[in-house]
């Protein structure tokens, strides 16, 4: 071993070879397929990067085999490879975290410390496996003759290819075992004399093999795809790249030729010099490396940037290998481990002794390990308590077994909860100095909190929010809601738990370990951990990214699903310190009062020409789920022979206010559009992505909406009503009724179309008409449909749109099928709307319908939204006043600022069309609509809003006039007041409602 590790000075040729090999290995950090595809002979050249990668997988084990062929290698060398790889991965991931914190993920971090178990690098795994079996290979190769070695290795090489037909995909560590074969080739070839004739034939065979692969790989690939597209071959029928597979004899012959040419240089290296290649391999194979190297921009030249990055990573590998040899193996834990390995002669002894030490460590630390295990079980149980009979709804139409889902996809969210439970234990343990008391306290609090959240979910469809903690003072009124039976069961459980605690403390006493100072430090650190949630929602912060790396990703859209997948503890912590809006300059109660006075004057001017009162009319806000005019999809081509699916709604352009509505969502965000419509506020004003129904409205006992101008207001939704906390939020809106599936009000005329599981729009409008006809006077109705909700799985029989849709973005059969299904759905919507409009025209009372699609259906990839930002966020809307309303002062249509509007503009537009008087707040909304471009979210995904003019073009906010800037600031001030501020506007007389 001393000869192997003997330090040698590198000569010029050795240095050049190291640099060249490292360079070509690090080139593989980048994807070069498209680059080579632009070169001459592109059909052939685009396979070169793959060929290079596979060659590396063969050559590197051969080189290591040659260098480590001089004598038996102790298993310590395998450990050295592993520890060098782990430290390199740790450093790489730390740099990546500070460079790209948003990529942090605990699953990736798991791979840092267990690179072999998690298949971080097959090549690294192969080298470690080879080091472990090297002594046995050494003995075997020296026991048999040269001819027997050649025959055995050749037979294994051909057998490996023949038995796999070149289909082995080397993407898992287990395939590293195969690389032992090439390691053995390197060991053998390093010590055998090769005649000149054999050398020449080997070089010729290698060159010929290269050309066979260079021409054959693209040729076989072409044949394969021809057969696939013509239906003559299945997906897994054969491998078109079997010539270049790592098991391919042709690839081996080519690599063998290169190895033989440089054999003298290769065998001249020492083992320590080979350590340089471990960081290189990690840089080449690390799962994050592609995004990491691309994140650096040094010049405007992409090619030169790549070259510089390769050089930097090469220097980093060299520097790290020097540091490792100088310092790493002097670190006490590493030094002790190396010494432990060296105490044993073979791998079997090491495994046996390691197992003995490991079991002894488990026995010594059994209390702590069992405590951690209990907290994980406790954490998992708290998740399960929130499920619905051990089912979790993962989409609106699909649920899944909770145990499988949580263990399979929420492992680290459960771990994070367990970490918080352990921190709670540390605090209690420091205070009580009693192990069982502290453990039971954590258990009772965790299970009790989970049950309390489940009770509230069952009662109100939402979890407990931080803002509701002060409700504990109302325990007398809460107790009847919980129920006498549950209270008795809880009391009995508490008595049992107390008795159990006393029993455990007496029967199995556990003495505290460590000094009070040590326990105090842990308690202090635990308190600091409980302070981190105040940064959970601060986008861009370190705590934000670490939290999300644990899979704690709150959507704030469906409270019930959020608590089921994040657990009751994390769900609660996620609601601390929400980042809603930046506080405007000069925000105060007096500022809001000043705005009340300012817009009261404007309201008086507007009301001089308005003769109607809103509360005497029937206003229907009709959110049509995912409704978009199919002809407005980017690049869409619809066969002109098929019926126009939205003929009636398009005809509304002539007899109603009609245009495009800018949606703040794509494929989702229904509740946000609904919130904008009802309140007049705008999602673009928020600092971060959130769902006001879940994060803002619950902070208030009363929240102002357009419905407050009516004596009677209701909502109708022929679907599950608990989404987005609607049940409770509508109460905060002071709605008199909410009709939904499962409510005390029956959904009539339930009709589903084809195989769809959703109630149709015919059902929606039947229930809407029922509500319209149920009241003699005016009323407000929030009417929400569900028919066109995703997915679009070929629901409808006899669909005339199948096969009639094409376009650049409709480039797969699946997308075309979904689009055809969607078109048939909106055709049904069109017919239902036509019937609905026809019926309200016959009703002898003023009715105005605000119809709008809430967002695009999730058919096209959202990646295209950057190419078509306005188009893919534009849905169709119209505002129609029935014949009776028009006869009593309502306008047929508005023509000013109606081409592109935001959902938040609807109230101002509706008031103008119905010729209704306005409040000061509605006067502000009127000014915003009339004098500003449409305000919407930043479609680039950045913070802040964007402005869109009537031609659908973006407007630079800096180009607004001083008057427009002032209106925008006033609007922002009022929205801040009702979202992140003190709600002073509710106390400003008459600001939101006439007569207040």
Automatic annotation (TrEMBL):
It comes from Lactobacillus crispatus. Gene3D superfamilies: Alkaline Phosphatase, subunit A (3.40.720.10). Keywords: Membrane, Transmembrane, Transmembrane helix. This is LTA synthase family protein. The chain crosses the membrane at residues 12-31, 51-69, 81-98, 110-138, 150-169, 175-192, 199-226, 246-262, 274-292, 304-324, 367-385, 405-428, 435-452, 487-508, 520-536. Residues 617-915 form the Sulfatase N-terminal domain. InterPro entries: Alkaline_phosphatase_core_sf, Sulfatase_N. SUPFAM superfamilies: Alkaline phosphatase-like. Pfam families: Sulfatase.
């Amino acid at each position: 071993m001393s000869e192997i590790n003997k330090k040698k000075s590198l000569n010029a040729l050795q240095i050049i070879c190291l640099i060249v090999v490292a360079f070509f290995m690090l080139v593989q950090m980048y994807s070069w397929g498209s680059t080579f595809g632009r070169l001459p002979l592109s059909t052939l050249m685009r396979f070169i990067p793959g060929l290079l990668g596979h060659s590396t997988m063969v050559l590197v084990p051969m080189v290591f085999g040659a260098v480590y062929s001089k004598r038996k290698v102790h298993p310590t060398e395998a450990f050295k490879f592993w520890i060098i790889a782990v430290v390199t991965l740790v450093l790489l991931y730390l740099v990546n975290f500070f460079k790209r914190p948003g990529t942090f993920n605990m699953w990736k971090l798991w791979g840092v410390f267990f690179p072999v178990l998690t298949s971080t690098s097959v090549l690294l795994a192969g080298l470690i496996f080879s080091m472990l079996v090297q002594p046995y290979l050494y003995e075997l190769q020296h026991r048999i003759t040269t001819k027997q070695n050649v025959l055995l290795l050749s037979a294994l090489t051909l057998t490996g290819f023949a038995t796999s037909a070149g289909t082995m995909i080397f993407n898992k560590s287990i395939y590293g075992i195969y690389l032992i074969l090439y390691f053995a080739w390197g060991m053998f070839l390093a010590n055998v004399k090769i005649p000149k004739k054999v050398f020449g034939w080997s070089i010729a065979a290698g060159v010929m093999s290269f050309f066979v692969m260079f021409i054959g790989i693209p040729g076989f690939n072409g044949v394969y795809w021809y057969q696939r597209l013509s239906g003559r071959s299945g997906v897994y029928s054969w491998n078109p790249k079997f010539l270049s597979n790592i098991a391919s004899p042709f690839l081996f012959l080519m690599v063998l030729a290169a190895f033989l040419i440089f054999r003298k240089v290769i065998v001249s290296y020492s083992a320590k010099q080979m350590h340089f290649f471990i960081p290189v391999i990690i840089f080449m194979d690390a799962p994050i490396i592609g995004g990491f190297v691309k994140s650096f921009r040094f010049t405007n030249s992409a090619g030169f940037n790549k070259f510089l990055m390769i050089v930097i990573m090469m220097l980093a590998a060299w520097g790290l290998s020097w540091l490792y040899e100088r310092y790493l193996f002097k670190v006490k834990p590493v030094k002790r481990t190396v010494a432990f390995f060296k105490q044993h002669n073979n791998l079997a002894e090491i495994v046996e002794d390691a197992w003995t030490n490991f079991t002894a460590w488990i026995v010594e630390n059994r209390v702590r390990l069992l405590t951690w295990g209990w907290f994980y079980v406790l954490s998992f149980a708290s998740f399960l308590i929130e499920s619905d009979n051990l089912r979790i709804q993962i989409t609106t139409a699909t649920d899944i077994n909770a145990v499988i889902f949580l263990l399979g996809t929420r492992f680290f969210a459960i771990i994070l909860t367990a970490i918080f439970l352990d921190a709670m234990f540390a605090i209690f343990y420091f205070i009580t100095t009693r192990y069982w008391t502290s453990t039971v306290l954590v258990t009772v609090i965790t299970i009790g909190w989970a049950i309390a959240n489940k009770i509230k979910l069952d009662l109100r469809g939402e979890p407990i929010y931080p803002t509701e903690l002060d409700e504990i003072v109302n325990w007398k009124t809460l107790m009847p809601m919980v129920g006498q039976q549950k209270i008795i069961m809880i009391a009995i459980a508490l008595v049992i738990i107390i008795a159990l605690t006393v029993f455990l403390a007496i029967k199995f006493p556990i003495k505290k370990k460590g000094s009070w100072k040590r326990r105090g430090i842990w308690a202090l650190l635990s308190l600091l951990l409980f302070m981190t949630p105040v940064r959970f929602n601060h986008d861009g912060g370190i705590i934000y990214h670490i939290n999300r790396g644990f899979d704690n990703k709150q959507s704030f859209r469906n409270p019930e699903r959020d608590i089921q997948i994040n657990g009751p503890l994390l769900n609660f912590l996620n609601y601390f310190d929400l980042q809603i809006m930046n506080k405007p300059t000069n925000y105060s109660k007096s500022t809001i009062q000043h705005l009340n006075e300012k817009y009261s004057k404007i309201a008086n001017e507007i009301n001089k020409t308005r003769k109607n009162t809103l509360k005497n009319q029937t206003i229907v806000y009709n959110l049509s789920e995912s409704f978009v005019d199919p002809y407005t999809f980017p690049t869409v081509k619809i066969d002109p022979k098929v019926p126009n699916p939205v003929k009636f709604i398009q005809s509304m352009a002539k007899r109603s206010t009609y245009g495009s509505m800018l949606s703040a969502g794509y494929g989702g965000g229904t509740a946000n559009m609904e919130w904008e419509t009802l309140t007049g506020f705008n999602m673009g004003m928020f600092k971060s992505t959130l769902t006001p129904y879940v994060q803002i409205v619950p902070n208030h006992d009363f929240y102002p909406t357009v419905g407050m101008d009516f004596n009677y207001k209701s909502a109708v939704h022929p679907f599950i009503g608990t989404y987005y906390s609607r049940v409770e939020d509508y109460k905060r809106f002071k709605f008199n009724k909410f009709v939904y599936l499962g409510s005390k009000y029956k959904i009539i005329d339930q009709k589903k179309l084809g195989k769809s599981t959703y109630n149709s729009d015919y059902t929606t409008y039947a229930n809407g008409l029922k509500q319209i006809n149920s009241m003699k006077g005016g009323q407000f109705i929030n009417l929400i449909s569900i028919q066109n909700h995703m997915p679009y799985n070929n629901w409808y029989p006899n669909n005339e749109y199948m096969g009639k849709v094409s376009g650049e973005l409709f480039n797969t059969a699946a997308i075309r099928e979904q689009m055809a299904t969607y078109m048939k759905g909106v055709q049904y919507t069109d017919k239902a709307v036509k019937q609905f409009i026809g019926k309200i025209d016959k009703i002898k009372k003023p009715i105005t319908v605000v119809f709008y699609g809430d967002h695009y259906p999730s058919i096209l990839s959202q990646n295209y939204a950057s190419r078509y930002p306005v188009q893919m966020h534009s849905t169709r809307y119209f505002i129609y006043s029935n014949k009776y309303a028009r006869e009593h002062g309502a306008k047929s249509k508005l023509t000013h600022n109606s081409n592109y509007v935001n959902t938040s503009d609807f109230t101002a537009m509706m008031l103008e069309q119905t010729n209704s008087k306005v409040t000061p707040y509605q006067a502000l909304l009127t000014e915003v609509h009339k004098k500003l471009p449409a305000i919407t979210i930043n479609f680039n995904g950045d913070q802040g809003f964007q402005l869109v003019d009537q031609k659908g073009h973006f407007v630079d906010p800096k180009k607004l006039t001083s008057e427009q800037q002032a209106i925008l600031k006033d609007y922002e001030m009022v929205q801040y007041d009702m979202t992140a501020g003190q709600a002073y506007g509710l106390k400003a007389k008459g600001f939101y409602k006439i007569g207040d």
